Amino acid sequence: MRTAVFALTAAGAALGGRVVLALGDEAELFVSQRHPVSGARYFEKLQQAVAENFPRYDALVFIMAAGIAVRTIAPYLKSKLEDPAVLVLDERAQYVISLLSGHVGGANDLARRLALSLGADPVITTATDVEGYLAPDAIASKLGLFPEPHEEIQRLNSALLEGKKIFYYIDPVCRLADFYARELWGHGFRLADFAALPDEAQALQVVISENEEIPLRQGRLFLRPLRLIAGVGCRRGTKSSYIKKALTEAAAKLGLPLQAVAAMASTVFKDEEQGLFDTARELGIPLSFYDNDALNRMIYRYDLRESAFVRRITGVGNVCESAALAAASSGRLVLGKTKFEKVTVALVWQKKQKSQ
Q: Are 163 and 228 in contact, with CB atoms under 8 Å apart?
């Protein structure tokens, strides 16, 4: 999860360094130019820095008063299905507050992870989390599913809190149907027979399916599978066995099987690598190549980090991340550039727009 960390004061900037260290290479620190620290980017006005970076990052962490953070992000908010995760920390790192997009955006999980690293207390106010329930939109975030329609999220979460029974259905034609079933069983959910999907108005249902012909109705929430796209870079002549092994290990970092990878992408400088074609054929997925103009557009759009070495070789400073994002058109980078034997991989969930 690409994360922008914002700090206003000297104490905040110092804590920001710890936050970035805890989150790893996918985090970037932005500090007031009045309190420069090594490795950070500087801003004159917080509002301008947030305006520029709000659409570029999957999560924003503010080390400052919650009121300042709320007023700063307010003009850019759209919906819980589109907004990035937003967290707030106090300067002493006593509390990590999940402020926005707790489930779909992953703010609750990020708050817990960061609190554990900093020795802080996570502050989670989402009702289902407070009561110890795993909500449908929370499990969706973990499994790469998109919940829709928006109004049914609140309806089913409220029903869950009231102790009402919710039936889960998995369309067997889904690419990862068996994986979804194992995960849901592992979390204690009871699965119903998809073939007997009832249409009674009173039945509360969560339906995992790509089939948009199943009618919408009150009490029925759909979890739509997203496409996981792998951006891949490799050494010349790399065999498919190495590429498949890298993809398997990359997916496993997200708790996903290799079959979750739905597409591959790379630079045109690799469009003669037989190992890439063999891997795509063996997995039965599409493979796309992008020129430097397309990759550079992604680098600028998402403010991706660049490598001088990669630029000397290919003419562009970032390959696997930018290629995956180019293939997704609109995506969320869930695994930044990761090195494996002879192969580098980045993983992107292709975003689905909310239903109108």
A: no
Q: Could you count the other beta carbons within 10 Å of the beta carbon of residue 42?
A: 15
Which helix or strand (DSSP H or E) is residue 246 part of?
A: helix 240-252
Beta-bridge mates of residue 221 = 206
Q: For residue 208, with 0-12 CB atoms within 10 Å meaning exposed, 13-18 middle and 19 or more buried, which class applies?
A: buried
- Sorted by where each starts, the structural domains of the chain and their CATH numbers stand as 3-125 (3.40.50.11220), 141-225 (no CATH), 228-350 (3.30.420.180)
Indicate the residue type of 213.
E
Whether residue 284 contacts residue 308, with contact meaning beta carbons closer than 8 Å, is answered with no
Beta strand 228-234 with 343-350 is: antiparallel
d(CA 344, CA 337): 6
pLDDT tens-place values along the chain, 356 residues long: 889 999 999 999 999 999 999 998 789 999 998 888 888 999 999 999 999 999 889 999 999 999 999 999 999 998 878 889 999 999 999 999 999 988 888 899 999 999 999 999 999 988 887 777 788 888 888 899 999 988 899 899 998 889 888 889 999 999 999 999 999 998 888 888 898 887 665 688 999 999 989 988 889 999 999 999 999 999 999 999 999 999 999 999 999 999 999 999 999 999 999 999 999 999 999 999 999 999 999 999 888 888 888 888 888 889 999 999 999 988 888 898 999 999 999 999 998 654 43
In sequence order, the β-bridge partners of residue 228 are 261, 349
Cross-strand partners of 224: 146
Encoded tokens for 134: 């795993």
In angstroms, the CA 62 to CA 69 distance is 6
Percent composition of the chain: helix, strand, coil (DSSP 3-state, to 5): 40, 25, 35
Strands 95-100 and 121-123: parallel
- Starting at the edge strand found earlier in the chain, the sheet holding 331-340 runs 287-290, 261-267, 228-234, 343-350, 331-340
Classify residue 136 as exposed, middle or buried by CB count within 10 Å of its CB (0-12, 13-18, 19+): buried
